[in-house]
Write a structure and sequence with these properties.
The chain is α/β, with parallel strands linked by helices and 250 residues long. 33% of the residues lie in helices and 18% in strands. The model has no long low-confidence stretch (mean pLDDT 96). It comes from Penicillium atrosanguineum.
């Protein structure tokens, strides 16, 4: 393991970062430091009109690690990649080294997540329409998943599904319409984890983002026979993939 590496976990919409706990335990057993981001847009006291609160919160946690001289691997799940890309701007290892600073973001790990170009939002990048399983409130401020058991956890056992669904919370819908202004994957070495059974972001869409949206940029790929939630159904495989992204020979 490269010295002084922190793995920072950013969950997707509706999710607590506690969903990564089994993976975190595996990484900490391998002597990694870890950090979890609780997105402000998940179960907020009042809903946000854009993703700026998420961006700010992620950036603060990255800054804490890099200012302590840590190299940071940012693991993003689903929606979590959008505010994370914004948050990484200027905190990558190359930029910080040019300023004579220690620490920085060394790798971006997409766990069946979104690769979105500048100027696009999550919604606009995929045609401008809500997905069929979105349940959006009449005021267009809150969104839930209508069928999370089928969309997120279709390869999990019954107990995992029950606990996972119970842990979901309301999400601020307008964050899905925030346009991206910075694509960190153009500046930071990246890995994309293809999830073969993903019903939220089908494999064809995952491959399109890597092979078309990110064409010309060096994005490594890993593959796991899992749903949208490999942290539940394939935690050991996800842990190993993250360790490889961090530079471990595993």
């Amino acid at each position: 393991m490269p010295a002084s590496t922190t793995v920072l976990f950013v969950p997707g919409a509706w999710h607590s970062p506690d969903c990564f706990d089994t993976v975190i335990q595996g990484l900490e057993a391998a002597n990694y430091s870890t950090c979890k981001v609780h997105l402000p847009s998940v179960n907020p006291p009042s809903h946000y009109l854009d993703f700026s609160a998420d961006v700010s919160h992620i950036r603060t946690q990255i800054e804490t690690a890099v200012d302590a001289g840590q190299n940071v691997v940012v693991v993003v799940h689903s929606y979590g990649s959008l505010p994370s890309n914004e948050a990484i701007k200027g905190l990558d290892i190359k930029t910080r080294q040019e300023k004579g600073l220690r620490g920085g973001v060394t790798h971006l790990f997409f766990c069946c997540s979104f690769i979105i170009p500048e100027g696009q939002s999550l919604i606009s990048a995929f045609g401008g329409n809500d997905l069929p399983w979105f349940m959006v409130s009449d005021d267009r401020l809150e969104v839930h998943s209508a069928t999370p058991d089928q969309i997120f956890y279709n390869d999990c056992d019954d107990e995992q599904v029950k606990n996972a669904v119970a842990a979901l919370a309301a999400h601020s819908y307008q964050t899905f319409h925030s346009p991206c202004t910075y694509a960190a994957w153009k500046h930071v070495p990246s890995t994309y984890l293809y999830c073969l059974k993903d019903a939220a972001i089908p494999l064809a869409v995952q491959m399109m983002m890597v092979e078309e949206t990110a064409k010309g940029f060096d994005i490594n790929t890993e593959t796991v026979d899992a749903s949208h939630s490999p942290f539940y159904s394939k935690p050991d495989e996800l842990t190993v993939a993250i360790r490889r992204a961090a530079g471990d020979d595993v």
